[in-house]
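Need the bound structure for calcium ion, inputs here:
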Amino acid sequence: MARIVLIEDDVDIRRLVADALSNSGHDVDSAGKALEGLELAVKDHPDLVIMDLGLPDVDGTELLRMIRAVSEVPVVVITARGEDDVVVSTLDAGADDYLVKPFSVSQLEARVRAVLRRRESGVEGDRLSVGELTLSPGPREAFLGNQALDLTPKEFDLLRVLMERTGQVVSKRELLAEVWREPYGGSDHTVDVHLSWLRSKLGETASDPRYLVTVHGVGVKLVSPDK
Ligand code: CA
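Answer from helper R.:
Posting the output first, comments after.
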């Protein structure tokens, strides 16, 4: 079962596709407009997005770029017949696969299975997990238990670097180099501020840490709270 966001303005096709995928056991959320769909693609943390290229509010290729700017989620594009050049440009813009209208439900399901299979073999292996914390670098998602963490890009990178070196003390200089790309410049204060934001999103404080332990005068290390 996968979480799927479907963006299609044609009501009949939308209903047909949503019903077929639901009957196959998927959890489907659908939208008739591009911006509505973009919002679902961000909020739902779907495993797959299926989107029509001809949408009323935003050009489909543009929508694809907008999705790609914020997410690595696999995208299957639905196009009208005879748009070969459009197919090439959408694949270039980051689509994983495409379907030409009219298509059968079984064709669609075969594409969905293929894309999900590819995703599983790629991203799952990279997932980092410490205690209840999990982080997937590909889709840039982090969870504490079942709760998705709403992290800024820098907070995400900070957490990723610390999780990659779980149990080791990482200096603020190393963090400035790896997260801020400032191997020589930058300020410890920047690291301190972002650490404190990250701590509050993890529901902990510097004086009562669970995952993020400060080692005074050296740096910070991420630990599993069980240890
Ligand atoms: Ca359409």
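Comments: The longest strand covers residues 3-7. The chain has a mean pLDDT of 88.
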